[in-house]
Structures are given as structure tokens and as C-alpha cells.
């Protein structure tokens, strides 16, 4: 996927030869580690609210001078919020699991428990604090919190200076009030962003049960959106 993103970003090189990458949902630093290899002159601003995951990310990628890992979640407004944690740290979220009796589309062992309080920052405020005017890649993997985080990225979105946006999006809800792909797509279209492709599409279930039509259900994907400026160059 990053090879595609690299080619898209290259259509509009950064004016200073470098660039910024915002990594919402750093986890253990997997994305940032790959991104710094693809974009060696870039600065990466990562956000991870879970203390254990943040410490692991610090060990894995914290030695890079160009990577900063902020111990906070990204959300719609600055403050603090309850954080829901479980044994599968990649599924930790600001949102709880749905309250329903239907069988879920996430692993049975990926239950979440609340009670942890974390800091929440916003994209626009963090960009303003650091003087970030242009973002080559905005990646959000926030376990249901992607649309909320975009809600306070209006300055960045209105300017169109977030060139490529990567969003983890779902076709079926796994958290309470989680937006589906079409809701994120509609929101970004209002700012002139268009869908480029769907990558890493996952179909079916994460746990074993008798094979049924449920295994054909589209589950989640990484959606790549591009700014008007990229679209104009791409389609000329």
C-alpha cells in the first residue's frame, strides 16, 4: 500500500524537499517504521494513547530523530476521555464494543474494558503548534474514531494540504457509533477529497466457526483518498 501512496505523493513534491506524515494510531510503530523507509526525508508525528503500546513504539522507532510519538489519542476536541482496553492491544479504542446479542465480526478474545483515562488531542491544534502547513500523508487507524478525528482537522482539510489520506474503514460496525466507509467517504468528499482505492480488504471473520455466508461479509479495509491537487495532476 505504501508504494501506491509514495507514487501519489510524488506527483506533488514537498516545496522544501521534506514533508510531514501524521500517523494516528501508532500502536507498536509498524506504519511509521515502513513510512520512514519510503519517505526518508519526512518528519513523522505519531499518536498512541495506550501506555503499553506507546512504550513498545518508543523502543521500536523512538530512536529516529524524525519521528515523534505523542502519548495521546486523536479526537474531535482536546481534553481527556475514557479509553477501552483489552488483551488484543491493536483493538483498543475510545469507543466501547456494541451492546447487542448478534455475533460480532471481531475476535472473541478482543473484548474491551473501560476505566482508563487518556489525553485526547486534535489534528488542527497539533499542526498549528508545530507550524505544520502541509501533510504528505495523513493516516488514521483509530478503531472507530477516524471520523471524530477528522471533525477537528477542518483547517487542514479545507486547505487541501493533506495530500493523501489513509483511513482504516469498516463495512460492518465493531464499536458503538463507529462510522462505516460511506460516512467517511461522504465527509471527505465535502472537502474535495476523492477515493483512489481500497486496499487490504478483509473478508469474513477473525474467529473459527462453521463456514457460512457470514464468511463472505466484507469486514474492513484501508481506504486511500486524494486531494484535489493530486487528482488534477493524476487525471490531466
Overview of the structural elements:
This protein is 28% helix and 28% strand. The chain is of the alpha/beta class and 236 residues long. The chain has one domain (2-228): Rossmann fold (3-Layer(aba) Sandwich), CATH 3.40.50.150. It has a seven-stranded mixed sheet. Strands 4-6-5 form a three-stranded mixed sheet. The mean pLDDT is 94.
Can you summarize this structure?
By secondary structure, the protein is an alpha/beta fold. The chain has helices at 2-10, 30-38, 51-61, 123-130, 146-151, 154-159, 181-189, 228-234, and strands at 20-24, 43-47, 67-70, 73-74, 79-85, 113-121, 135-140, 162-170, 194-203, 218-226.
CATH topology-level fold name? Rossmann fold
Bin the helical content.
25-40%
User: How many strands?
Assistant: 10
The order of strands across the largest sheet is 3-2-1-7-8-10-9
Spell out the helices and strands N to C: HEHEHEEEEHEHHEHEEH
Number of helices: 8
What would CATH call the class? Alpha Beta
Cα distance spanning the termini: 23 Å
Assembly type = single chain
Kindly name the structural category: alpha/beta
Return the domain count. 1
Keywords:
8 helices, 236 residues, 3-stranded mixed beta sheet, 28% strand, 7-stranded mixed beta sheet, Rossmann fold, alpha/beta
